[in-house]
């Protein structure tokens, strides 16, 4: 029997609990919510995703809605939730305080400017003023209409394009400027109207059979770490753990029961699937999930790889080798019963999450469908009796900010192609499992303890700041345990504060690896939730909770924090490079220190390109203050290939300059022309075609396609930059090191 290729999309919709329980003082309404992301993502990302899907009835999907997200949506719908952004938006222009004006100038451009600001001329005009003239200039020169327009546009730009045909919204978009307080009040009403449709629309589509709605432990905690923080050492045996071991497995059934009851109340039925927070699983958490009644869970291919002791390799096109291992459900066997589990294709999920937004919509959709068609062909060639299920699971909200029109053109092209393709069939996970129950089994005790990030928990534990936060949580949890009279019934404030503090997001933002311009607020929120536990128990708050968990000043050198998609125009757009790795050059000791012409180096990747940026000292000129030739030399560790030395005169015989390299990209900084070469026999270099992009304006920006380098996915590279003048060595960077790069 020939099966179509079954595909399960799972969109994960989640926001942490931004609602502050207070810190010993009574809260005014404007202080209730520290950040606006539930309200703004609610108007941009949750409703449109399923409304678009509804237009393609053949396509079935799964959406995960985290209880803490729904709770906050309900507060905004009821009009009882206020955040500082909303409070400023609803303040008459003439009553804005000096502090509010500072806040507005600093934070009301918190959006991807390519997709959310630049398409709107008035919003873009205000943004350019702030970027080019600075915050101080805006504060000194802006008049009330400038603030009024910015307050309006910050809210308007986050309304999804799917709703732009609404007569009121269309009028505001056409109006462009001179917005009044009355306009802003109406925009707020429109936001609440959109928010109020989200849950009913999901319930309606689930009842119609096109959608499956799943849930997550109540406030999105990482269950394996609640059971035992020592589980961090399963993937990383030498991990530095918190001083105190957190072992409160009894909190796991609480989170699961609350999520279960919450779901039943909102959707009129019981949930079948559970999205474990951060796709984190371990043998210890399975009995609780089974006993609560869930039928299936999902995790990442890395977790399956660790579990099976199998490394998933990919071919040059990025398709999985031995796909039959990944594209099937498994049955986890435990003493409490069995539980089905599906594992997502990490690369396909990441292409949607991090790469397709930088491609033309139809080309991106065709690329994804092409990957699925290739998998369908592999399935046919395998002549397997068992149907395959490709799981694509990812964050359903944040990626769309990087897509034109919030991803609408991409999703329309994708959904139309999938509707027209007879060999591909989109299903909900439960639909597939009901028709084709899992036949492959995994003993529950064999399941790897890990998450969707590298199959480990290093994103949430092991770093000094993350460990400090776990120690603070442990102390607060012990304090609550010392008050057995404080039950969920008679002291819900203490328990709600605990659940909020156990959420995964706080630990994500602490320490190295992830950063945003709101790190300090996340730090404060975490501590306020812990404050709430002590306050509800009438216990003194430990002094350390009044100090930040870590220093939030800008760091110097750091490794990449996520994929980037910069526009190569030589302007060094700050948002384009905010997740890039950074190496300080001008302020470092050594060869570059005297002139400090190059001040810093930025680097990063996506699935299409490697990106490089060099920041120069102001006023420098290539060929005068700076050598005119820049050479990028690529070193491939542990790979057998033909290599050649750096082809420059006067080259010092010292590592890493005396290494042999395989690829060379020469950039002429005067003409912005490039020459790409590959190493040949007898230490020769041979010209090759390159699609690399280069631009030099107030900085140098480069994009080098992975196709030029001909390297497979998941491969390590090393890079050195060498400056030369008329073929003679001048200098190199970074000093005494190679730049470590991981191909996605």
What key attributes describe this structure?
7-stranded antiparallel beta sheet, 744 residues, alpha/beta, 5-stranded parallel beta sheet, globular
Structure report:
This protein is of the alpha/beta class. Helices cover 36% and strands 17% of the residues. It has 25 helices and 22 strands. The strands form 4 sheets. Strands 14, 15, 16, 17, 20, 21 and 22 form a 7-stranded antiparallel beta sheet that branches. A hairpin with a 2-residue loop joins strand 6 and strand 7. Helix 6 (121-133) packs across helix 7 and helix 22 runs antiparallel to helix 24 (519-536). The longest helix is centred in the middle third of the chain and has 22 residues, at 361-382. The radius of gyration is 27 Å and the shape is globular. The relative contact order is 0.10. The model is unreliable at 23-31 and 587-595 (pLDDT under 50).
- Alpha carbon gap, first and last residue: 36 Å
The structure class reads: alpha/beta
Mean pLDDT over all positions = 93
Ranges with pLDDT <50 over ≥5 residues?
23-31, 587-595
Number of helices: 25
Shape: globular
Helix content: 25-40%
What percent strand? 15-25%
How many distinct beta strands? 22
